[in-house]
Amino acid sequence: MRIPYLLLFILGCTALSCSSVPEKCRYGSAEPIFDASYEKVIKHSFSQKGQLTYEQIIFENQMELEIQQSGCDSIRQVFQFKIPEDVRSQKDDYYKEMTIQFFAYLSLVSDKHFSLHHLGKVVSQHFQEIKLGKSFMMQENYYLKIDRILSVNEAILVVELSSSQ
Fold first, then answer.
1. Are 44 and 35 spatial neighbours (Cβ–Cβ below 8 Å)?
2. How far apart are CA 71 and CA 88, in angstroms?
3. How far apart are the C-alpha atoms of 126 and 105, rounded to whole Å?
4. Whether the Cβ atoms of residue 143 and residue 137 lie closer than 8 Å to each other
């Protein structure tokens, strides 16, 4: 079961190691995970400030996603999915279910992104163990944290992947 978790992070590690950064940086600079060439992507932007990158994507189903990545000696990817409705009354399970659905969709963008479905699988398999706002160790040195930012008319589902707590 450890292999699928590694596949998810291989995507991240690949994205973080593909650029030229001084050798003292273990993973290098982050690269975009998506781009506008994919059929399901209707709008895409990418910017970098030092070791921190920001990627904004709107998909054909109108899902909005921002990805923040950083990595030098450790990897951190934060996926922020916009939920355009008032979900303040939803229970914690709702956000875990949304995580499963959002990553299932992302895995369909291209063959390159298929490994993202493993993240949803992890959430499904450890549904009761995963608590909002708390890091969950998927395997040694690989952590998942699901949280949310709530407001009256929308919410942000925050899914963080990291190689350290």
1. yes
2. 33
3. 20
4. yes
